[in-house]
From TrEMBL:
The keyword Membrane applies. Residues 445-467 are annotated as: Disordered. The chain crosses the membrane at residues 418-435. Residues 456-467 have a biased composition (Basic and acidic residues). This is Alpha-galactosidase NEW3 domain-containing protein. Keywords: Membrane, Transmembrane, Transmembrane helix. It comes from the Archaea.
Length: 467
């Protein structure tokens, strides 16, 4: 009987030990180091956090112990790349939890965090701190537990056209158009397809289509895409839109499309052909033609200061607008300074003579030979920018000299240039006066003859006339 009683006692003791061990084992196998409270993250929305976007955490709080709990406080302590959101509390409370709760019982709390925009793909830890009270009155005990959960961050897949190296495309001229594509996200991109289109059909690719492929582009890296393009010869100068389309693939092989636009200016500078047209009485006429593909506004033609030539009067003239293919004539009074240079080099200039008196010299074939005239053309292009073009013109004069226009007393090209004409006029006037005197004498002789004068008088008159 005693043996049976001792055996029964041992069995009962073993049962209590096993039950205690089972309770302790159940608590040790939980998600939090607590003998009576389990805290678990049951849901994350979205499943992987994305940089620059919020993420919502759903946390379950379950009392699996044998005692009721009260004043439960759950607090989330975020670390980089997570931060709190304004207006969203990171600490929430549950007033009471019954003992021995099932899986579908307990409290459910939700927390919102913001993911940093520059976060890289990976996993990050967050601590959840829980405080609660067990017991009642003066015998109640406050417990604090800490649980670490892991959040996954998915990198941001995004690319953009950072720069276009050439924003100006000349008309009817082959140009290179370069796009610099940068992965501004935090995850690698692969199998990217870049294409563009001008809705008006003015700018078109040449030698290839408008599509380029990028096999792989790591986060933060850039790649240059080069196109050969040309603008329509009949295009109106102005700003045109390029619609750019980028299709990219993330590490989960999901396709994303990014659409953007860029502007390019069609039309640019032009060119001119300047040639000697003619010379007349001291004027040099130049033919100025717009040989480029763009219109030139407010064209101004000038003869700048230079060694071999000098302009008498205005050195500039405004000829207005020149369409492509148009031309105009600009005239200037040009003199040669070659004689002055020769005089100064030999030191033969007459002392006391004004320098201006020897600086000007009529243009001759010898004085312009191998001495091109420098001409400057200023114009405004279609973008409103003022452009200057320098040209040189060979003056082709025949033998002899080109008379210079009068500039006032004491200068070459003044009244002395008219001396040949004055001499001709004087000779013509003298001849006219002489002829009139002859006619008067003949008339006088006729009058005497009709008056029956004696032969001696007639002979005398004829002799006089001969004299």
């Amino acid at each position: 009987m005693r043996k049976f009683s001792l055996l029964a006692i041992l069995l009962l003791f073993s049962i209590f030990i096993c039950l205690g061990a089972g309770t302790a084992l159940g608590a040790s196998n939980g998600n939090i180091n607590s003998s009576s409270l389990q805290v678990n993250m049951t849901k994350q929305n979205p499943d992987t956090a994305r940089p620059g976007e919020p993420v919502e955490l759903t946390v379950s709080v379950q009392n699996v112990g044998t005692k009721d709990l009260k004043d439960i406080t759950v607090k989330v302590n975020p670390e980089y790349p997570f931060t709190g959101i304004s207006g969203q509390s990171l600490e929430k409370s549950i007033s009471y939890l019954n003992a021995r709760q099932d899986d579908n019982e307990g409290g459910v709390l939700k927390f919102k965090l913001m993911t940093d925009a520059g976060a890289s793909a990976g996993t990050y830890d967050i601590d959840i701190v829980t405080t609660y009270k067990s017991g009642s009155g003066s015998s109640s005990t406050t417990y604090t537990t800490r649980k670490t959960i892991t959040l996954e961050v998915r990198g941001k897949e995004y690319a953009q056209i950072v720069t276009i190296d050439k924003a100006n495309i000349d008309i009817a001229k082959e140009e290179t158009l370069e796009f610099i594509v940068t992965n501004t996200g935090t995850s690698p991109l692969k199998n990217m397809v870049i294409s563009w289109k001008d809705p008006e059909g003015v700018v078109l690719p040449v030698y290839s289509d408008n599509t380029k492929y990028i096999k792989y582009l790591d986060a933060g890296e850039s790649v240059k895409i080069v196109y050969a393009v040309m603008a329509d010869v009949n295009a109106e100068p102005g700003l045109y839109t390029l619609d750019i389309n980028m299709v990219l693939e993330d590490y989960e092989s999901n396709e994303n499309t990014i659409n953007t636009t860029a502007g390019v200016f069609v039309g640019g500078e032009t060119d001119f052909d300047v040639s000697f047209s003619e010379s007349d009485e001291g004027e040099v006429s130049l033919s100025v033609a717009n040989v480029g593909n763009n219109i030139a506004y407010s064209v101004k033609v000038s003869v700048p200061k230079q060694e071999n030539y000098k302009v008498s009067g205005s050195s500039s003239t405004i000829v207005g607008n020149l369409e492509k293919g148009d031309y105009t004539i600009a005239s200037f009074d040009v003199l040669s300074t070659q004689g002055a240079e020769a005089s100064q080099e030999s030191g033969s200039r007459i002392p006391g003579t004004a320098k201006a008196g020897v600086e000007e010299e009529n243009l001759t074939a010898a004085s312009v030979q191998n001495k091109p005239l420098k001409v400057q053309i200023e114009y405004t292009d279609a973008k409103g920018e003022r452009i200057t073009v320098d040209k040189e013109v060979e003056l082709e004069l025949s033998g002899g000299s080109m008379p210079a226009q009068a500039e006032g007393p004491g200068k070459r090209g003044g009244i002395s240039s008219y001396l040949p004409y004055i001499a001709v006029i004087l000779l013509a006037g003298g001849a006219l006066v002489y002829r009139r005197k002859i006619q008067e004498k003949i008339q006088l002789m006729k009058n005497k003859k009709s008056g029956n004068k004696n032969p001696g008088e007639q002979k005398t008159d004829i002799k006089t006339l001969r004299d």
